[in-house]
Amino acid sequence: MKPTKRTDLDIPLCQEVQIHYKRPVYDVAKKISTSQSAEIIFRDFADTDRLDYKEFFFVMLLTNANQVIAISEISIGCTNGTLVNTKEVIQLALLTNTSGVIIAHNHPSGELKKSASDDTITQRIKGALGLLDMTLLDHIILTTESYVSFADEGWL
Q1: Single pTM value for the model
Q2: Does residue 52 register a pLDDT over 60?
Q3: Which of 20, 67, 94, 112 fits a disulfide with 63 by CB distance 3.0 to 4.6 angstroms?
Q4: Residue 49 falls within a domain, yes or no?
Q5: 111 within some domain
């Protein structure tokens, strides 16, 4: 039996890919100048009543002037972890044409120590953004009482 020959009709064609995003207009642009200013904005966005019960992972997307474009909740986990889809972080960064990214998650335990998985996801996101000429500016770990910044601690 002779193998059948593939034709162009067998392969779906992608004529065009479009990404749509409309930048929100703020009365006053929120600007990040320190890890503390990022932490305040993340706390305003997060449901702080739930920080001690479940782990959440957030991404903040910034312009080249470090003005906040958008914040998104990437995942919700359980008391000892959450799964982060790096692809979703990159999709949001591309969609918003961001220059800088700050990621954050909480530790329901109240511990401000970074874990091996915190390091792994930080390096994975940093590497992926770097390929696209985007910068991971910080990774913040939140607890109800305080926070720690990878950038401030020299961990980035």
Answers
A1: 0.82
A2: yes
A3: 67
A4: yes
A5: yes
